């Protein structure tokens, strides 16, 4: 039975997990650990965690949630795995899964006893930080898992808590996860980043024009560039751990934009709108 949870990384997702646990009825101890002490303190003040902990607190908990960027997840996994036993669970919320999955398999091959369930909630906001934590963040969201071994009791119990958050769950092959997420999550982020960076590069040094953009730009501009506020620290690790699938989607988009540009005065433009309308009608 899960009686204690350590959340490593008390930003938006980590704090939201703590709040969701409490709202779902979890009455065990929740320990928050963060390199930024003020983030962990904020999570405690919001009721997401009971106290601020240190590394020695983490490996003693029944469940450890690694809510940090992917490369940091790999670092913590390597440090924690030899210290924890088969009745404990490490899970994570990383946006890419193949490198994590492969490390878990490698650790198991070296007879490390710890259980690991790689996970990825498809939820978030364009900005981070504990103060934006929300107990309802995962309601209706898909929470993906890429299990590395057969299900066991502590994993089954953690999955039950996730469903109590209001999330839907799906198991995927880790490689397939990274390929799909490159299309549905990572590409939209890079497009928004490129658009926002382009506007800033072109007009940021001209206050009058920038002010016009802010005054005139409507919903389309706001929605298309909203993700431009996302933190580099997380997306750097996504780009480094999912380079080939993400590069392939960017290349496909480059080709599509070239096709669109060349067809601005041809019937091909109508076909592009037909296909786009058909895709949107599937939702």
What topology does this entry show?
Layout: E1 4-8, H1 12-23, E2 29-33, H2 37-45, E3 51-52, H3 55-58, E4 63-66, H4 70-80, E5 89-92, H5 98-109, E6 115-117, E7 119-121, E8 142-145, H6 153-164, E9 168-171, H7 174-203, H8 207-216, H9 219-225, H10 232-241, H11 243-262, H12 268-281
Parallel strand pairs: 1-2, 1-4, 2-3, 4-5, 5-6, 8-9
Antiparallel strand pairs: 7-8
Characterization of this structure:
This is Prephenate dehydrogenase. Keywords: Oxidoreductase. One of its GO terms (biological process) is tyrosine biosynthetic process. Pfam families: PDH_C, PDH_N. The protein is an alpha/beta fold. It has 2 domains: 169 residues, 3-Layer(aba) Sandwich (Rossmann fold); 105 residues, Orthogonal Bundle (6-phosphogluconate dehydrogenase C-terminal fold), CATH 1.10.3660. The chain has 12 helices and 9 strands.
**First-to-last CA distance:** 39 Å
Detail the poorly predicted runs. Answer: none
**The biggest beta sheet, please?**
6 strands, parallel
Pairing-aware structural class of the strands and helices?
A: alpha/beta
Name given to the CATH architecture of the largest domain: 3-Layer(aba) Sandwich
Q: What is the C-level CATH assignment of the largest domain?
A: Alpha Beta
**Overall number of structural domains:** 2
SSE order in H/E notation?
Answer: EHEHEHEHEHEEEHEHHHHHH
Percentage of residues in strands: 5-15%
* CATH fold node name of the largest domain: Rossmann fold
- Using only C-alpha atoms, the radius of gyration works out to 21 Å
Choose one word for the global shape.
globular
Helix content: 40-55%
Q: What's the overall average pLDDT, rounded?
A: 93
- Number of helices, counting only DSSP H or I runs of 4 residues or more: 12
CATH superfamily of the largest domain: NAD(P)-binding Rossmann-like Domain
- Record field, number of beta strands: 9
Query: What is the spatial order of strands in the main beta sheet?
Result: 3-2-1-4-5-6
GO molecular function: NAD+ binding; prephenate dehydrogenase (NAD+) activity; prephenate dehydrogenase (NADP+) activity
Protein name: Prephenate dehydrogenase
InterPro entries: 6-PGluconate_DH-like_C_sf (IPR008927), NAD(P)-bd_dom_sf (IPR036291), PDH_C (IPR046825), PDH_N (IPR046826), Preph/Arog_dehydrog (IPR050812), Prephen_DH (IPR003099)
Pfam family, one: PDH_N
